[in-house]
Design a protein that fits this description.
Layout: H1 2-24, H2 32-59
Helix pairs in contact: 1-2
């Protein structure tokens, strides 16, 4: 799930960069903080799923 989040966010950042460059001629709305947040959130989701995924699946009845 974390990797999927990173891929989705990377597509959004790419689209934003392309639109900004095409429409204004310079980078708009994407800074270092945006990129760090994208990477950080995806990795935190992956870590949480790695640490608690089995327990959550068991408690929700998804596994026997």
């Amino acid at each position: 799930m974390g990797f999927t989040k990173n891929c989705f966010d990377l597509c959004n950042i790419t689209l934003t960069i392309l639109m900004g460059l095409l429409l204004t001629g310079h980078l708009v709305g994407i800074g270092l903080g945006t990129v760090l947040a994208v990477v950080g959130v995806g990795r935190v989701i992956a870590l949480f799923q790695h640490l608690a995924g089995r327990k959550i699946a068991r408690l929700s009845g998804m596994t026997a």
